[in-house]
């Protein structure tokens, strides 16, 4: 393997907090998968960007994919608002089970917006990457 193609050279990845939370949210709501993609040539400090796919092409491109869930603290992952749960809870004495579909979509969108703001502050310090030499952790450096 040529040194530039060897992801073991990666010590840290820089990625925007917005890309992390957007990728996580996308994967929760859509049939495709969103990842944080790192492409060769590899060196110590790399930039990761959001990448959406239906078929993983990392083997063909040599890219390294980081799952956005791996970049978020457990609480952020576990508190993502599921659409199905909107209208199940009761607040301010109002019966939310009587919400119309449009009202449920609006409430869900608002809940996701609130979650995004909190999740941007819930990034981990290291993330796992897979290499031919095995699993290892690299530093996560938030941009912005």
In short:
Pfam families: DUF8009. The protein has 144 residues and is of the alpha/beta class.
Please provide a written account of the structure.
With 144 residues, the protein is α/β, with parallel strands linked by helices. The chain has 2 domains: 1-72 and 124-144, no CATH class; 73-122. It has 4 helices and 7 strands. The chain has helices at residues 17-29, 58-61, 74-78, 101-119; strands at 12-16, 33-38, 45-47, 49-53, 64-66, 126-131, 134-143. A 4-stranded mixed β-sheet has the order 3-1-7-6. A 3-stranded antiparallel β-sheet has the order 4-2-5, covered by helices on one side. A hairpin with a 2-residue loop joins β6 and β7. The model has no long low-confidence stretch (mean pLDDT 89). It comes from Natrialba taiwanensis DSM 12281. This is DUF8009 domain-containing protein. Residues 4-144 form the DUF8009 domain. Residues 69-113 are annotated as: Disordered. InterPro entries: DUF8009 (IPR058322).
Radius of gyration equals 18 Å
Counting DSSP E segments of at least 2 residues, the number of strands comes to 7
Helix content: 25-40%
Strand % is 25-35%
What is the domain tally? 2
What's the pLDDT, averaged over the residues? 89
What composes the largest sheet? Answer: 4 strands, mixed
Distance between the termini: 34 Å
Low-confidence stretches: none
Based on helices, strands and strand pairing, what is the structural class?
alpha/beta
The helix-strand sequence is EHEEEHEHHEE
Side-by-side strand order of the widest sheet = 3-1-7-6
Shape: elongated
Number of helices: 4
Pfam families: DUF8009
Region (Disordered): 69-113
Protein name: DUF8009 domain-containing protein
InterPro entries: DUF8009
